[in-house]
Every structure is written in C-alpha cells, then in structure tokens.
Amino acid sequence: MSRKKTVKSKNNTTPTATLHCKENGSSGKGTGSEMPLNSVVHPSRPSLSNSSEFYDIAFKVMLVGDSGVGKTCLLVRFKDGAFLAGSFISTVGIDFRNKVLNVDGVKVKLQIWDTAGQERFRSVTHAYYRDAHALLLFYDVTNKTSFDNIQAWLTEIYEYAQQDVVLMLLGNKADATHERVVKREEGEKLAKEFGVPFMETSAKTGMNVELAFMAIAKELKHRSMKTPNESGFKLHEYVNKEMKSSGCCKS
Ligand SMILES: Nc1nc2c(ncn2[C@@H]2O[C@H](COP(=O)(O)OP(=O)(O)OP(=O)(O)O)[C@@H](O)[C@H]2O)c(=O)[nH]1
Ligand SMILES: [Mg+2]
Q1: Ligand 1 centre and the CA of 141: distance in Å?
Q2: Is 223 exposed, middle or buried (0-12, 13-18, 19+ CB in 10 A)?
Q3: Ligand 2 centre from 152 Cα, in Å?
Q4: 69: alpha, beta or left? (left if phi > 0; alpha if psi -120 to 50)
Q5: Which end of the chain is more exposed for a tag (fewer CB within 10 A), N or C?
Q6: Backbone phi, then psi, for 63, in 5-degree steps?
Q7: What digits encode the pLDDT tens for the residues 186-241?
Q8: In b/e form, how buried is each residue of 122-133, taking b as 16+ CB within 10 angstroms?
Q9: How far is the centre of ligand 1, averaged over its atoms, from the C-alpha of 22 (Å)?
Q10: Which atom of ligand 1 is nearest the CA belonging to 172?
C-alpha cells in the first residue's frame, strides 16, 4: 500500500475542552489537538497523523455516556497508558486525541472524540454524532443511574448518529469491586437486548481498554477494506472470543 505525506493544517475553531484525570493536583490541561467540527477523515487516503505516524485509513470514534463514568480516563489510559487518579474535573464541550493502531498490517488511525457527559453540553455533542464511524457508550458499574440512562443514550444515538455506526457498550470501573452496584450480567443482558457488543473495562487497571479500541478498529477496517467475496468480520464473535481467551470475565 502506498503511503505519502500530507500536510495537515491546524485549526483553532474546535470547541475546547480539557483532558483531565488529575493526579496530585496537576492540571492535566489541554492535551488534545485541534480539528474542525465536521472535518472529514478520508478512509483509504494515506496520510500523516499529528503524531507524525503514517496511517492508511482513519475513522472517528466518539465516547459518550453520563458525566463521571470514566470516558476521559479511559481515553488517557488508551493513549498514554496511565491512570491519573484524583479529583474529578468534568470535560467541557468536546476534545479529541488520535491513536494509530496496527490492524492486521494496516495502520488504522482512530480519531477519538471525548465528549462531555453533562446535560448542558448535549447540544454540542449532537453536532458530532453524524460524523462518527463508531461510538463507545459508557456506564459506570458503581453508578446505577448511569446504567439506567443507557436507554436514553441509545435513543439519542438512534436519532443523531449514522444508521450503520459501530456501537459498543462498556461498563467501566470494573476494578471497583466494593462499590459495584451493576452486575456484569445486567450489562450483558442490556447489550443483548439492543444487539450491541459489550465488555466491562477499567481505566484504572487497563482491563479491556486496548481490546475495546482494537475491536472497533478491526470492525471499521474490515468494513472499509473487505472485498465482495470476503466473509465479514464479526465484532460480537471477536469480542466474545477475546474475552474468553483472556479469562477476564468468567462468573
Ligand atoms: N475506580 C475507577 N475510577 C475511575 C475509572 N475511570 C474513571 N474513574 C474515576 O471517575 C471519575 C470520573 O472520570 P472521568 O474520566 O473524568 O469521567 P468522564 O466520563 O470523562 O466525565 P465527563 O467529562 O463529565 O463526561 C474520576 O475521578 C476518575 O478518577 C476506573 O476505571 N476505575
Ligand atoms: Mg470527561
């Protein structure tokens, strides 16, 4: 596959936000880069990402769910491999980060949009749904309300996102055994009801963080590159197989 460099101009019109997850009082401020709203990522156009890494195809992934479920922390864990515990600073508006994954020899760039879960930013978030190729919908296993709100989030997704958007449900904070109020089985049942893949994650321990993004990247890559005779990649099957082989989630 040929790869050529393209120069990407910076644009400062994006609503700004902070990737927080504070540790020991550090500010953890503004680590995302800028990208205009509705900017198009061209699958199949070889290019150079912000991090000076080549990629073959690029997709937009949005993180959504109630405030405090751990969207920003999960993204920081995925991007930087760190969990920055401390006081919770809610995301303002929306921010994004890029990460290039090697999926079966193809460099897949994920442009990951971290949205604010707070109600007052909902109208900002709505504007981004239609460009998203994939959505990771979060609840917090220690917060029943965040789980009960999943249905409302799905209604919103069906209203604003593309019909063929790749969707996955994540029950985050699985490490918090003592505070858990939503059983894994409840998450599984809900996901089954809506026909979406599901896994529990932990931004704190890193459990299933890589897997969640890799599964999404594989699905998107297969969709965009598959030949007519090729049998499709099965996201559900991949997730179930990987979960089983990791032995992470046996009851
Ligand atoms: N135990 C545990 N705590 C977590 C985990 N992920 C996030 N937290 C904590 O949960 C709080 C909220 O995390 P954020 O990532 O900021 O939540 P958010 O979903 O981005 O919230 P908004 O930006 O308001 O939408 C922080 O205090 C984190 O330290 C996790 O996997 N385990
Ligand atoms: Mg946040």
Answers
A1: 11
A2: middle
A3: 19
A4: alpha
A5: C
A6: -105, 120
A7: 999 999 999 999 999 999 999 999 999 999 999 999 998 876 666 678 888 888 88
A8: eebbeebbebbb
A9: 10
A10: 31
